[in-house]
Specification:
2 strands; two-stranded antiparallel sheet; globular; about 60% helix; 12 helices; mainly alpha
């Protein structure tokens, strides 16, 4: 059954134009072509990158965070309560009013105590400032090096300057040495969109490699790598408290992102993969599959562009601090807010009781 499914999946009429097939991609006369089995090398390389990341975060990112004044977040630990912990883990992390009343009866806590317990418990699950800084440092380094490597690999290729060259001789395109490519983070509010993006990207990289869409694949990767390192560097400065540097780098990131993802990607890359191939071959399943994945990526680009533009407008019009809207922020206990407000009122007006300033009419001895 598996053999029959594999034969159906890899049938030539699905992935190649009419008249071409896998035999055309067999190595001969010293010419080397991409092979599906080459993708297995991505697994050990991914493991190596995980190890490198752990070493980088401990030996580079952590000392850098200390140098920039980024410290570990100190959070209040919640007392262990089996009833509340079970509800938190198995039902919901944000109980409504009715469940809270039931939990109050089961635990003997007041409503405010239950709400405070859940707030602090949610804070415990959020990544600390130091963890986020280390992640941003690794991503900045990785994306920057990936962009430089991609640019170095493509700088002398004709299809970087003339996209029609992408399809010259397709699919019998010789694999060049510079075209060997590989395709525990913080969970954010756009986690589902990120998963869709990762799946689409992995499919695109795998498909590009297997059926020799390598030229298109390398251009797509270069476009995506061109802006990400700006975002990660802005995050690093944000976590370090360098507000102006963060804001200005974010504006640069927003400009590069919009130009690369909303202009170059749809009007150059997708146009080239959608229009040029049908001038040489009849449309086939692989053609629709590849362009369908590109359209999924473009929809995600629009979604993220809206978030980016909204943050940029807020910064430019109100001079507000740029914050990543995808990241959850720590929740503050009401009691802590009340105590802080009381301290401010005391410093400003003296002691406050029941909302009114307490005047000291008692005479004190002057020494």
């Amino acid at each position: 059954m598996l053999s029959g499914l594999s034969d159906w999946f890899w049938q030539e009429q699905l992935w190649f134009p009419k008249g071409l097939g896998w035999a055309d991609l067999e190595d001969r006369d010293g010419r080397v072509y991409a092979k599906p089995q080459d993708l297995w090398v991505a697994l050990p390389i991914a493991l190596i990158f995980l190890i490198i990341r752990q070493i980088f975060e401990r030996t580079v990112a952590t000392p850098l965070a200390s140098l920039l004044g980024v410290k570990e977040t100190v959070r209040l630990q919640v007392p262990h309560n089996p009833t509340l912990e079970s509800y938190y883990c198995n039902i919901t992390k944000n109980p409504k009013q009715t469940p809270i009343a039931s939990l109050c009866k089961q635990t003997g806590f007041s409503e405010r105590q239950v709400q405070r317990w859940f707030r602090r418990r949610r804070n415990q699950d959020r990544p600390s400032l130091l963890k986020r800084f280390r992640e941003a440092s690794w991503r900045f380094t990785f994306y920057l090096l990936a962009f430089i490597a991609g640019l170095a690999a493509l700088i002398d290729k004709p299809w970087l300057y003339d996209l029609k060259e992408m399809w010259q001789g397709f699919p019998v395109l010789t694999l060049l040495p510079s075209q060997y490519c590989v395709a525990s983070d913080v969970k954010r509010k756009d986690f589902k969109e990120q998963i869709v993006h990762h799946v689409a990207t992995i499919l695109l990289i795998s498909f590009s490699w297997c059926v020799n869409y390598i030229r298109a694949g390398t251009l797509i990767m270069l476009v995506h790598d061109s802006s990400d390192y700006f975002l990660e560097s802005a995050k690093m400065f944000n976590y370090a408290g360098w507000r102006n540097a963060c804001n200005y780098i974010f504006i640069v990131f927003a400009a590069v992102f919009i130009i690369s993802r909303l202009v170059i990607f749809p009007f150059w890359i997708i146009y080239c993969t959608w229009i040029y191939p049908v001038t040489m071959y009849e449309p086939f399943f692989g053609y629709y599959f590849f362009n369908g994945l590109l359209m999924v990526l473009q929809c995600l680009h629009i979604f993220w562009a809206v978030l980016i533009i909204r943050m940029a407008i807020r910064f430019l019009t109100h001079n507000e601090k740029v914050d990543d809207e995808r990241s959850d922020k720590d929740e503050t206990d009401e009691s802590e807010e009340e105590e802080e407000q009381a301290k401010k009122d005391t410093r400003k007006n003296g002691p406050v009781q029941n909302g009114h300033t307490v005047h000291n009419n008692n005479h004190s001895k002057i020494e």
